Task: structure prediction
Amino acid sequence: MSVDSSRSAIPSPAKREWPGLATPPRSPFRAAVARRLFLRAVRRLPIEVELPDGRRFGGGGPVMRLVEPANFFHRLGADGTIGLGEAYMVGDWITDALVDVLTPFAARMDGLVPRPLRALRRFARPRKPARERNTVDGARQNIERHYDLSNELFALFLDESMTYSSAWFAADEDSLGEAQLRKVDAILDLAGVGPGTRLLEIGTGWGTLALRAARRGAEVTSLTISPAQKELAERRLADAGVADRVRVKLQDYRHETGTYDAVASVEMIEAVGHQHWAEYFGMVDRVLAPGGRFALQAITMPHDQMLATRDVQGWPHKYIFPGGELLSIPEIEGQVTSHTRLRITERRALGASYARTLSTWRDRFLERWEAVAALGFDETFRRMWVFYLSYFEAGFRADYLDVWQFRMDKS
Result:
């Protein structure tokens, strides 16, 4: 599928700057603590850390090479996971096996810091900026910073359906496109979408779920706050001949007032934020007719880690998903019980499929890097994007992260 570059929603990404990234923060005490904790941790991990003089630490496995150890430990000591990612972005450390290096860290996330120091993490790590809270205005700005980067960029590494969420691979020979359509159809099945269904989609993406629902005979209203996604989704829907059955609205979910037989939302809830989860679930309950169904796809993390990191800014928040926040299974269950008349009646986990999805996206991104660079993205962006895709793949491979599809029924 071609994407008309003349219709990009924002200026060239070549104008992006990286203020302060080249110069690491300086805190000798924190750097010394970080060095001690890091080297202590890697002795118990199946990786090798190599210093410039050839010395190695670790339990064996893929090699993480510290090119600039002093800068690496200053960054790590000052900003934790932000420092780890920034150090990779600028080349303070390198590896030929990024996912394999990151996976053991993800698998042992809770045990990397000694127990007596864990209570201090919330005071030592940066807090999420108040401006990134997902108010109506804040959510729009957060979404535009990621999803409006460039439709052309996403078209280069996504499949033909332009689907930017976990696929569902059922067999080794599945293509990414086949697995994405299986995921979309599974969500529509959970929502009970068929001829005449009044469907609300929260989070349009680039229109694939709305298109598939319309082909089933549904009447679809789809909400997005991304101008770039709305524009391309409407073109794709028109090209597919279903524009008369789909209305794409540039509107925050909180402002929806219609009544629907079904609601579907695929990996949009990660952009809601814990201050607004009650509003989100309450809105679904409000617009869903009695006897209706809600189909939700959501990325999850362990409940204790969710609570511990709720207000902490991590590398993904700073560079990829400002305002982003994952829920846990207990949190989803609690929100549904407290704020809706819904019952969770079916669920399935797709974590292994997400790891494969992210790996495929990364391979496609790197294979087409010259075309990405031609759009104006620089080498720092390349390393950032590769770290992003590898960071999350490692989380899913380690079972620290999972992704679930839920069916919820309203009585």
Summary: The chain has two domains: 28-124, 131-410. Residues 28-124 form one domain.
